[in-house]
Amino acid sequence: MTGSTVRPPAYQQLADELRAEITSGRLQPGERLPPEPELCVKIGVSRSTVREALRLLASQHLIVTTRGVTGGSFVAHPDAEQLADGLSTGFALLSHSAAVGLADLLELRRALEVPAAGLAAVRREEAHLGELRGALFDPDIDDFDTMLAAHSSFHRAIAKATGNPLFELVGRPLYQATYGEEVIGSLPDGYWAQIDSDHRSLVERIAAGDAEGATRAASAHLDYIASTVR
C-alpha cells in the first residue's frame, strides 16, 4: 500500500506558478500581475488564497504591491542586496553544518576573489576606489569586531567594482559567513596586520589598473588565510 501524496496549500501552488512565470522571464520586472479578482476566476481560488500567495511572493522580494487607482502587484526589479538576504539564510545553515567545512568556504572564495580582483582592476571607477579605501582598518587600534566587519565590506566592495552584479549577489552571503569560534580563537599573532597589508596591496593594484598584479595579490591573500586557519 502506497502512501498518498500530500498536496501543498492552494496559496503555495499559486505562488509557485507565479514564481515560475517571474523567474522564467515570462513576467518582466515592472510588469503588472493580473488583478486579484481576475486571478481568482482564472485559477479558481478564493480572494484570501490569492492574497496569501501575493504576500508570500512579496516576502521573497519577487513582487511589490502598491495601493491606489494605479496600484496593484508588480514584478520587482532585481536588487542584489535583497536577493542576497535570501541566499544568506541558506548559506549560513550550510556553513554551520557537517556538509560544508572551512576548506569549502576557502575554495569558493578563491574561485570568486581571484578573477574578481582582476576584473575590478580593469573596470573600477573612482567611487569604487573610495569604497575600498573606506573599508580599510588599522590593526593597531581597531577591535576584532571592527576588523571583521571591515574585512567583509572590503571584499564586497571588490565584488561591486567588477561591474557584474552576480559577483555581488554570490559574494555578499559568502562574506557574512563566519569561520567559527574554534578558528577565530586560534589565529596567530600578526594575522590582522597581514590581512591589512594584503588589502592595501590589493587597493594599490586595483587603483593602478594592474589586473595581473591584482589577481596575484588576491591569490597570495587567500594562500595566507588558508595557511593560518587550516
Molecular structure report:
66% of the residues lie in helices and 3% in strands. The protein has helices at residues 10-23, 36-43, 47-59, 80-95, 102-123, 126-134, 144-161, 165-176, 181-184, 191-207, 211-229, and strands spanning 63-66, 72-75. The protein has a two-stranded antiparallel sheet. The longest helix has 22 residues, at 102-123. The radius of gyration is 23 Å and the shape is elongated.
SSE order, as H and E?
Answer: HHHEEHHHHHHHH
**Number of DSSP strand runs:** 2
Question: Distance between the terminal alpha carbons, to the nearest Å?
Answer: 51 Å
Q: Which strand-content bin applies to the residues?
A: under 5%
Which structural class should the secondary elements be placed in? mainly alpha
How can the largest sheet be summarized? 2 strands, antiparallel
Low-pLDDT segments, ≥5 res? none
Placed side by side, the strands forming the largest sheet appear as: 1-2
C-alpha Rg (nearest Å): 23 Å
Rough outline: elongated
* Residues in helix, %: 55-70%
Number of helices, counting only DSSP H or I runs of 4 residues or more: 11
Question: Taking all residues together, what is the mean pLDDT?
Answer: 86
Task: Please give the structural blueprint.
Elements: H1 10-23, H2 36-43, H3 47-59, E1 63-66, E2 72-75, H4 80-95, H5 102-123, H6 126-134, H7 144-161, H8 165-176, H9 181-184, H10 191-207, H11 211-229
Antiparallel strand pairs: 1-2
Helix pairs in contact: 1-3, 2-3, 4-8, 5-7, 5-10, 5-11, 6-7, 7-8, 10-11
